Amino acid sequence: MLPLRLGDPEDFARVAAALRGPDFEESAVHRILRDSGNTALGAESIEPKVAGGLASSSVLLRLFIELKRVPRAEVEAALDRATVDSFLALDLMRGGDADCFESPVFLYPVGEMLIASDHYNKSSGADSVFPAIQTGTLHLLKLLPRSAADDALDLCSGTGICALVLSRYVRHAVAADVTARAAHFAEFNRRLNDCGNVEIACGDLYGPVQGRTFDRIVAHPPYMPSVEEAKIWRDGGSTGEAITRRIVEGLPTYLRPGGDFLALCLGSERDEAPFHLRAREWLGEAEAEFNLIFAVRKYLSPEELAGQVAGGENADGVERAFREAGVTRFCYGALAIQRHEGAGTRPWTMRTKLGASTGADSFEEVFGRSRACTQLEAVADLRPRLAPTAKATVAHRVDESKFVATEVLLETEFPFAHAIEFEPWIFPLAARFDGSRNVATVYAEAKAGEALPAGFGFEDLASLVAMLIIQGYLTIDKA
Fold this sequence. Notes:
Layout: H1 9-19, H2 26-32, E1 33-35, E2 46-48, H3 59-64, E3 70-71, H4 72-78, H5 81-89, E4 100-101, E5 106-110, E6 113-117, H6 135-143, E7 149-155, H7 161-166, E8 170-177, H8 180-192, E9 198-202, E10 214-219, H9 242-249, H10 251-254, E11 255-270, H11 275-281, E12 290-300, H12 302-309, H13 314-324, E13 327-339, E14 349-353, H14 362-371, H15 376-379, E15 385-386, E16 391-399, E17 402-412, E18 418-422, H16 426-431, H17 439-448, H18 458-471, E19 474-475
Parallel strand pairs: 7-8, 7-10, 8-9, 10-11, 12-14
Antiparallel strand pairs: 1-2, 3-4, 5-6, 11-13, 12-13, 15-19, 16-17, 17-18
């Protein structure tokens, strides 16, 4: 039997008001919770840890975060009678006729929302609704686009947290998950947060939204490789990519021109191709209509991941299966894909790293820059300048008793942590871009001053400038 009841709006309003008090704000909750560090994939649960070994003084924290049984007298002293009745009516508290109250669910504030889920160590089975207050989801919430859009789709939505957060920026959002349990929790969370523009759907990936298209699609798919009976909320096939692949394959059908996609996922690097190029192939015949960014957070060897998936003696067999599939390493990070708005646009692919400065506007910033660089003739009129976050390191060697520059390493932290090596002659060329002259003028001056190597034409410079703009080494003023 499912926990939680979809009660009256008055009960939801009364409960939400009680939970938004100072005793249950995010900072208070995070003083009780801390990262457990149980996995290396950025999907660590956050487990209760009572500071100093002392129980929290807050009735709400003890009930919903620590999942303690709290004496009835203490609950009734902290909450008025009507509020207690509303908690009981929604099945957030049980034990109305007993000496103590307790909660059947994990309930917490995250992303400025109030979210109910199953508890991380009290699984309901294969269809457990995974907590939204864990490191992987927090990473995804940090990266969610905040720009306005009409229609958004949250796949593998679980608690519905991403759709709920997106609902503040889009006209309409759909939270879709394959299990009835997740749909039930998401509907409860929708009502608790009074998000009237969120629709809850139940079915396999795009199944519930066939015939519809979206401006924004986000996903936090299950991505742990499964070796035995799969847990729906966690496992993604033999190498962890099965669900991510199906989602990407559906983008040509469900993502509108000009739309964007974002997922936090695990990918495998193979002998034949790295993950980001394989992900582009999943787009099929329409792949030329999309730009793609894969920003890596961390890498794992097949041995490391096998140890996490299986452990003990079984790890050797899992690692062997990874090797037989051609996997050389695994990469965990954010996959972002944008669909072009019109024909004739050249697609591009970028592999980078998530950095400390990477946030909600980072992917949109890069995709926005790319729109200004889609046609080489358009690049000629741009007036780029060196980005404030860019830095250069020049390596020298001794040649005939003199230091001679041998290579230049350009680095930037925004919008992503990125580095690229260039031949030394490119460094003074890039330094010419100060925002006062367009690319065509810089090219003419550099050519007249014999600062370019033989055969380096304007198209070469325009392509170089476009790449430096997209990757964040050069910036252009927004119109």
